[in-house]
Write a structure and sequence with these properties.
The complex is a heterodimer of chains A (about 350) and B (about 800). With about 350 residues, chain A is an alpha+beta fold. Chain A has 11 helices and 9 strands. Chain A is elongated, with a radius of gyration of 38 Å. Chain B has 6 domains: about 70 residues, 2-Layer Sandwich (Phenylalanyl-tRNA Synthetase, Chain B, domain 1), CATH 3.30.56.10; about 110 residues, OB fold (Dihydrolipoamide Acetyltransferase, E2P); about 200 residues, Phenylalanyl-tRNA Synthetase, Chain B, domain 3 (3-Layer(bba) Sandwich); about 70 residues, Phenylalanyl-tRNA Synthetase, Chain B, domain 1, CATH 3.30.56; about 200 residues, Bira Bifunctional Protein, Domain 2 (BirA Bifunctional Protein, domain 2, 2-Layer Sandwich), CATH 3.30.930.10; about 90 residues, 2-Layer Sandwich (Alpha-Beta Plaits), CATH 3.30.70. Classes of the chains: A alpha+beta (about 350), B alpha+beta (about 800).
């Protein structure tokens, strides 16, 4: 018998052996030994390779290897079904029982918005700086070009601790602290908690959070202010939002502006949230007023820059549609779980 | 501030829709919104109540038969108390609309009686707020005449402008009209005032002396004799009503009109109350008493400027007149004041009295010194027009300090450099023209003379803003290039916080933000140093700044407990403050991380977590290890506010406390289930994290060996004592100690307990032999016996 004939014979024998197989595992093990064992039929065929002509040997080797892997695969296949069916008779597990509840927590919506804003500005090279919540009149007002009896102080009702010490009314105090301790160029954002002496209601709380921005270098322009904040608005609210800059007034910037974005709820058609104007007021900004440079010993002839500030609660209320600002500070887990 | 479109049209022709005008104002920095006022209804006609009888099913309703000139009578149900037979009333017919189409009149059945229309009140027709009863019309017009033919409804647009504090010049119709003129490229036109003066000289009627000249640099007076105080003519009533002001009498109305028109505050005195016919302007004496027009007794400070007659103050300069010298029904001779008061003097004076008036708001924001004469002449002419009388000849004009118009140099190059835009010279010139800024071009710069009404323009940079404003901010292109400097980067001191937040979130904690303003009681429970108190708190509940992170978490726990929440974990990261003499503010700010474990995990078919102190100890270690802080240990402590507490250490540095709270504290917050609370110093954690050592040990190449030991010790002995002895005696090869069993029962005796530890030994340099490990274990057991009386079981 030639080796090829022998291969055909082994194949046929294997098929008939499988057909006559009972459900007992032992039979399958015997088949495994008969064909794949050290002295099995497949091994004996490999031994005969020496008799094959040298030029046919590679081809024959391939045929034999295929035979071996086919037999191995079929036996493995059968052995797994055999063992499964035998196990199922000994125990029953209900895999539909609920899995272990692993409750996930939440990061506060205000933190989430702050982190998102921070990441947008850090992509533009802004570093992060911090200022104190309790500060002096100098940092909160005077150095920001708001001397005593300035009408702009009325825009911010202030909590006082002493005549001179107060809870900061805006994060703009951080501009002064930072510039006092660093020479230009300066490119920072400063997130933090600020306080206003206002009655607590659905729309206002005695404290809230702001992010301040400051960029000072030689030759910084109003056009760059617009470019930076345009990019910010698109990143935060979507690539299709439009911005609008309109003149405003802050003692520490000149020119001063308010930035609006086209209403994200009605696609600028006019709705209740944008008070039918099609625009949402987002932030205040402007070119740093030369008076501010004087109070931190920067040369106003040499440096120009821009600053901006925005309220985090307002952003969060817009973004998540929160109607009552007090929910942010309630600690109500039914609220927090949703973020 | 409210501005009427019809009124603005006195000054210039305005085209465009209300929305366009509103947008123009907003783009110029006068943030505006608008509403259209005037006739707000359709299909309302004159009717007569022919017969009025009580409604059979309702006490307060009447059923009226109304004639609206159509032959048949309409039956209308009416709820007004003043309805009666024979009166003429406005009737909204079926199909009529009210409130600009928002409300439609339909045929209806009211308590079983058919009603074909509605009899209207003044409010329903947007005539006034009157809605107590229906409107009764005194007219001979034919029944069925449309109401708008009987009453006049003038269409108007009312702008509400949210003015920034620098633009005091726009607190008037004249000022807003000037701004619209910038956009339209036209100058406002002012009506000429015709004054018919008598031969009596003003100089004989009044003498003015300014004592404090810095506070009042100009004071002008006029006198009108023989006026008749009475109601204002309808046009004046309507004008004031169009911006929401009610009419008082012709003199007061005239002064209000000029104020709203020109923006210059004027004051009128009853001349016959002015003792000695003299006016002296001086600062008040400290403690001087004065009763203002609103009948409030005021105690003045020495920085209040007062207008006095020969004897006493008669007005609080620039703020409010006195009750002793105001216009009354019997007034016949009037003194008009038009003056320039220092903005800071008025502001300081008004602020300390908490008294803000239309006049003080304008003086505080600085007034136009060139408007003093036109305004006083306008008022004098108007008073004569509406209250008759004759104007004395000439004015008394005390003008001790001249105000020179300001000149500012303007460089186009610097303006372009700041704005980042190219602006041609002729564009700059046209902008200056539209702003009424006079200029000369010399040595490459503009020399600009600022008009007297723009007190806010003081520096070159203010003019840069004007240029940008008139061009339109939206017409300056955004930069497309991004530049930056490596020198601007600084390290984020608080970068650790977000790592902690992420770990806490994935472990089931919710982040909480609490109010940092608290009641004094909240600051007394925990060791936080003396709390900082507010001078002007909103309420006693918010009079102190928190000195511990824990109370905010307890308030949240209490809140949630009352809302049937059975189990939750919260954390808060925030600043706390206490008093400190060392700092400039007298306070110290510290950042803390607080954790609270409340209640239980909900029962589950495979209970897997107990939320007790041991679980919490584990989670704290997990949290800190997740950010690379190792070597965490606990020691029993006695922390204020806690019933039982442990100090938490990282190496030798204490970083916080954890434990269960005192019952007194729980009662304060009305919490029934005792939570576990942890307070960590974030400053310490940040410092440890900044200095944490990075690195690793190569995985061991030699096999490890384990030995279990079971020890019987006194029940009181802290496990930590056993652990530290094992650690000490185990030496370098003892890699791990694991308590795998704790056993307390009769078997080991009432006073004893049994602890079983698994010890793992391994060497980096050789394979340990059984005898080496056995020797180590013997050494450990001997020491445990000697130090703690521990016996092996």
């Amino acid at each position: 018998m030639s080796i090829t004939e022998q291969i055909q014979k082994v194949k046929a024998e294997f098929s008939s052996d499988l057909e006559s197989l009972s459900s007992e595992n032992d039979d399958l093990d015997q088949i495994r030994i008969k064909y794949l064992g050290r002295k099995g039929l497949v091994a004996s065929l490999f031994v005969q390779m020496g008799t094959v002509a040298a030029d046919e040997r590679p081809k024959m080797g391939q045929v034999l290897n295929e035979l071996k892997s086919d037999i191995t695969a079929e036996i493995d296949d059968l052995s797994s079904t055999v063992s499964d069916s035998s196990n199922s008779t000994t125990s029953h597990i209900d895999y539909t029982l609920p899995g272990d509840p692993i409750p996930v927590g939440s990061i506060h919506p205000l933190t989430q918005i702050m982190e998102e804003i921070k990441s947008i500005f850090t992509r533009m090279g802004f570093s992060i700086a911090y200022g104190p919540e309790i500060d002096t009149e100098f940092y909160n007002f005077e150095a920001l070009n708001m001397p005593k009896h300035h009408p702009a102080r009325d825009m911010q009702d202030t909590f006082y601790i002493t005549d001179n010490v107060l809870l900061r009314t805006h994060t703009s105090d951080t501009q002064i602290h930072f510039m006092e301790n660093h020479e230009p160029p300066v490119r920072i954002i400063a997130p933090g908690r600020v306080y206003r002496n206002e009655d607590v209601s659905v729309r206002s709380y005695c404290l809230f959070h702001q992010i301040e921005g400051l960029y000072v270098d030689s030759g910084v322009t109003f056009a760059e202010l617009k470019g930076t904040l345009d990019y910010f608005a698109r990143e935060l609210f979507g690539q299709n939002v439009k911005t609008r800059f309109r003149p405003s007034y802050f003692p520490f910037t000149e020119p001063s502006a308010e930035m609006d974005v086209s209403c994200i709820f009605c696609k600028a058609k006019g709705c209740g949230i944008c008070k039918k104007t099609g625009w949402l007021e987002i932030l205040g900004c402007g070119m740093v007023d030369p008076e501010v440079y004087k109070s931190v010993d920067y040369d106003p002839k040499k440096w120009t820059g821009f600053a901006f500030g925005m309220g985090i609660e307002r952003m969060a209320m817009l973004k998540y549609g929160v109607q009552d600002i007090r929910l942010f500070y309630s600690g109500d887990v039914r609220f927090l779980r949703q973020f | 501030m409210k501005v009427s479109l019809n009124w603005l049209k006195d000054y210039l022709d305005i085209s465009g829709t209300a929305e366009e005008i509103s947008d123009t104002l907003t783009a110029l920095g006068l943030e505006a919104s608008y509403e259209i006022t005037g006739k707000s209804f359709t299909n309302v006609v004159l009717g007569k109540v022919v017969e009025c009888s009580p409604h059979k099913n309702a006490d307060k309703l009447s059923v009226c038969d109304v004639d609206i000139g159509e032959g048949e009578l309409y039956s209308i149900v009416c709820g007004a108390p003043n309805v009666e037979n024979g009166i003429n009333v406005p009737v909204a017919k079926v199909g009529a609309t009210l409130n600009n189409g928002e409300f439609k009149i339909k045929q209806a059945k009211l308590r079983g009686v058919e009603s074909n229309g509605m009899i209207c009140s003044e409010r329903e027709l947007a005539i006034s707020d009157e809605h107590e009863g229906i409107m009764i019309l005194d007219t001979k017009a034919e029944l069925g005449t449309p109401i708008e033919e009987i009453l006049t409804f003038k269409e108007d647009t009312l702008f509400e402008i949210d003015l920034t504090p620098n633009r005091g010049d726009c607190l008037s119709h004249l000022g807003v009209a000037r701004e619209l003129g910038i956009d339209a490229g036209v100058e406002v036109k002012r009506r000429a005032v015709e004054l018919n003066e008598s031969t009596n000289s003003t100089n004989n009627a009044i003498k003015v002396t300014i004592v404090d000249k810095d506070a009042c640099s100009r004071y002008v007076a006029r006198v009108i004799r023989g006026v008749k105080v009475g109601p204002s003519p309808q046009w004046l009533v309507d004008r004031l009503a169009s911006i929401g002001q009610s009419s008082i009498n012709n003199i007061v109305d005239a002064a209000n009109y000029v104020l709203m028109d020109s923006g210059h505050p004027l004051h009128t005195f009853d001349l016959d109350t002015i003792v000695d016919n003299e006016i002296n302007i001086r600062f008040a004496n400290d403690g001087e008493k004065f009763t203002t027009l609103d009948n409030e007794n005021r105690v003045l400070k020495d920085f209040h400027l007062v207008i006095c007659d020969g004897e006493k103050p008669v007005a609080l300069a620039g703020i409010m007149g006195g009750i002793n010298s105001g216009i009354t029904d019997g007034t016949t001779n009037i003194l008009i004041e038009s003056a320039y008061f220092s903005p800071t003097v008025v502001r300081k004076g008004a602020k300390v009295l908490d008294l803000s008036t239309e006049a003080s708001r304008r003086f505080e924001r600085d007034t136009d010194i060139e408007e003093i004469i036109p305004a006083i002449n306008q008022l004098a002419a108007l008073i004569v027009e509406v209250a008759s009388g004759e104007i004395c000849k000439g004015i008394v004009d005390e003008f001790p300090v001249e105000k020179v118009p300001l000149t500012i140099n303007f460089s186009t190059e610097k303006c372009e450099a700041l704005l980042g835009a190219n602006i041609p010279k002729d564009k700059i010139e046209s902008i200056f023209d539209s702003l009424q800024i006079e200029y000369k071009f010399q040595n490459g710069k503009f020399q600009c003379t600022i008009p007297s009404f723009r007190n806010d323009l003081e520096r070159e940079v203010d003019l840069f803003e004007e240029v940008a404003r008139v061009i339109g901010y939206d017409n300056i292109s955004s930069a497309t290039q991004f530049t930056g400097s490596y020198n601007s980067f600084v390290k984020d001191d608080q970068a650790l916080d977000s790592l902690l937040r992420n770990q806490l979130q994935s472990n089931g904690y919710h982040e909480h933000y609490s109010n940092s303003l608290q009641h004094e009681n909240d600051t007394l429970h925990f060791a936080g140093g003396e709390a900082v108190q507010l001078k002007n708190p909103l309420s006693q509940d918010m009079a102190f700044i928190r000195n511990s992170i824990i109370p905010g978490l307890l308030m949240a726990a209490s809140y949630n407990e009352k809302r049937q929440e059975k189990g939750f974990k919260l954390f808060e990261i925030g600043a706390i403050h206490n008093q400190s003499k060392k700092s400039a503010t007298g306070t110290k700010e510290k950042f803390h991380l607080g954790l609270i474990w409340y209640g239980e995990v909900q029962s589950h078919w495979r209970n897997y977590e107990d939320r007790d102190l041991f679980r919490c100890k584990g989670e704290i270690i997990q949290l800190l290890e997740s950010v690379g802080l190792s070597n965490i240990s606990y020691k029993v402590g006695t922390e204020k506010g806690f019933e039982s507490s442990l100090k938490i250490y990282s190496g030798k540095m204490q970083i916080g406390n954890v434990g269960n709270l005192d019952n007194k504290v729980l009662k304060q917050y009305d919490i029934k289930v005792n939570p576990t609370v942890c307070d960590l110093s974030l400053h310490n954690l940040r410092e440890l994290w900044q200095n944490r050592k990075l690195g690793y040990s190569p995985p061991a190449t030699f096999p490890s060996m384990s030995r279990d030991i079971a020890l019987q010790v006194s029940r009181e002995l802290p496990a930590e004592d056993l652990l530290s002895t094992i650690r000490k005696e185990g030496g370098n090869t003892l890699k791990n100690i694991f308590l795998f069993d704790l056993y307390q029962s009769d078997e080991v005796g009432d006073n004893n307990k049994s602890l079983a530890f698994s010890l793992k030994f391994q060497s980096e340099t050789a394979t340990l032999t059984d005898s080496e490990v056995d020797a180590d274990v013997d050494k450990i057991l001997n020491s445990l016996k000697k130090a703690h009386g521990a016996t092996q079981r």
